[in-house]
Amino acid sequence: MDNKTAVTAVTNEKRKMNLPHIYALAFIFIVIMGGLTWVIPSGQYDRRDVTVGSSTKSVPVDGTYHSVQKVTKDGDTRQGIFDILMAPTRGVQKSADVVAFVLLLGGAFQILNKTGAITAGMKRAIKKFGNKGAFIIPFSMLLFGVGGTMTGMAEELIPFYLIFMPLMFNLGYDSMTTFLIVFLGSGIGVAAGTVNPFNVLIAQGVAGIAGNPQLFFRFLQFIFLEALAILFVLRYAKKVKENPLSSITYKTDLTWREEIVSAESSEEEFTVRQKLVLLSFGFCMVLMVYGLVKFGWYMDELSAVFIAMGLLTGILGGLKVNEMAREFVKGMGDFVYAGLIIGVSRGILYMAESGMIIDTILHTLTGFLHTVPSALFITAMYLIEGLISIVVPTTSGVASLTMPILAPLTELLKLNPEGAVTCFQYANKFTLMLSPTAPVTVAGIAICRLSFQQWWKIIWKFMLLIVIITIGFAVISSMLTV
């Protein structure tokens, strides 16, 4: 199956689900929040500025909440129709640093992708170790996992299904093994993000957390979870190789083996330029980690690193100035959807802030949740993130909708707001990995000629174990010293 067929499958699947568009959903929430400013009493906490690294954020001081009159001589906190219409604009302005980061990030990565270095490098590594039998499984999954935890590999996975399929067939495995290696290997890496700019850094940016303070703990989580995933796939692959009839895809693989093995493509050249591009990319990632750990870098500094990465990889990749500019614009265009939804969704919080009801909501929730054990609160937050991810199958959309409420709420409960980010990154990705509304998941399943029933049957026990473990990680994350 080619990429066009996969995209068609994604489109058809999305049409069947008929879920509300994320922008429509965000505006509905803005309207609802505007209405609530007429109903919920206004109030506010005293606030103090906290400086972390190069950024400063204002945080509420517990115990200082007090009521505020809605109508005074200085103004009216109730939000009307014109305020609702201005909310998306105000939201974009309030979250300008995060929106700009997302757009610049998209442009920089498009230049990197244009060089073809990442795909060519991974293909070379896979071809080199392809004759090592079972060794290819842990090696490849770790490779995809690193790509996931650092760069959030998603659409880039599509060609690798077709690369791995003939290799797995020749080694005596099935199409499900191929899907597990590519999709699960990367998916676990994305969920256990360390410096992944598309989930961890965006969520931290929306939550106002600078410097990725739990980077080392995130790295340990990634190693542990990726190791579990590798063991799971090795166990499945061993079972299939010893008894091909035990394969859940045995019947559908019979005719496909001959087709796909005969259509196996020849190896592409891995050029010196592409090697230099990968080296420069690695250098920029190391620089970013150093800045996060040493100086507590935030959106401006991270944006500078990614712009430098785009320029450096483009020059080393042999792209001309105009070509780099065109790719940069194209990349930003691809990320306008993700970037602006952060700003538009921030309009929901803007309405609550302007109506002075956000602190009332936080005060009410805090009063109720003070009696709830921390582990139970974190578990509930994890489940909430998962449920929202079903309705809003986009990482940036869920981050922008949930982090403005859950991060300060976690902080008011004397817990580390990084716990909210950890809940988000796991619950969101695991939901998307199982959801028939997630384009990347649907594309992979379509290319490998699987069904969701087959995928769910193979993965549900492992996913249940992983969810329990990651809820534990989120609880630990929330209890670590701020």
Please characterize this protein's 3D structure:
By secondary structure, this protein is mostly helical. Helix content is 72%, strand content 4%. The protein contains 21 helices and six strands. It has helices at 3-17, 22-36, 81-94, 96-115, 117-129, 136-151, 158-170, 175-191, 200-207, 215-242, 250-262, 272-295, 299-316, 321-334, 336-354, 358-369, 374-391, 395-412, 418-434, 439-447, 452-479, and strands at 43-44, 47-52, 55-60, 66-67, 71-72, 75-76. The strands form three sheets. The chain has a two-stranded antiparallel sheet. A two-stranded antiparallel sheet has the order 2-3. A two-stranded antiparallel ribbon has the order 5-6. Helix 18 (395-412) runs antiparallel to helix 19 (418-434) and helix 19 (418-434) packs antiparallel against helix 21. The longest helix is centred in the middle third of the chain and has 28 residues, at 215-242. The termini are far apart. Mean pLDDT is 86; it is low at 1-17 and 262-266.
